[in-house]
Structures are given as C-alpha cells and as structure tokens.
Amino acid sequence: MEGNAKELLERAEELRRNNRFGDAINYYKAAAEAPDATDEIVRKSLASAELMQEINSFVNVDLMNP
C-alpha cells in the first residue's frame, strides 16, 4: 500500500463505505503505521479498525439457538 497517511485513511473510509471491511481494516492499520501519520490519524485509524473487528466478530447466540 502506497501513499501518505491521509490518503491511506481516505482509502480506508471509502472501502468501509463500500462494505469491504477486511480491506478497510488493512488500510486503517497502514495509515496508522505510515511515517507521516499524525496523532489524530493514528487514533482515528486504530479506533476504526478495532471497532470494525468487534462488529465483524459479533455473534448473537440467541439467534443461533432457536
């Protein structure tokens, strides 16, 4: 993944809007690790990636056991 932190973050948000969550998480992490990432970009990227992972791993056991 190439680009500066802001471009990577924008790409991650575009992927999220298009329901490509796995790719979005990878771009969020790349944005956070970019050399030019500001504290704000790091916080936003990591929080977004973590939230998406939590949402994707949610299981409602009540729906699984009728």
Q: Which segments are poorly predicted (pLDDT under 50) over 5 or more consecutive residues?
A: none
Structural class based on helices, strands and sheet pairing: mainly alpha
* Count, helices: 4
Major β-sheet profile: none
The helix content, as a percent range, equals: over 70%
Distance between the termini: 44 Å
Order of helices and strands: HHHH
Q: How many domains is the backbone divided into?
A: 1
What is the averaged pLDDT score? 92
Radius of gyration: 14 Å
Number of strands: 0
Overall shape: it is elongated
Proportion of residues in extended strands: under 5%
Keywords:
single chain; 66 residues; mainly alpha; elongated
Report on this model:
The protein has 66 residues and is an all-alpha fold. The protein has one domain (5-57). The chain contains four helices and no strands. It has helices at 5-17, 21-33, 39-56, 61-64. Helix 1 (5-17) packs antiparallel against helix 2 and helix 2 (21-33) runs antiparallel to helix 3. The longest helix has 18 residues, at 39-56. The chain is elongated. The model has no long low-confidence stretch (mean pLDDT 92).
Strand-helix topology:
Elements: H1 5-17, H2 21-33, H3 39-56, H4 61-64
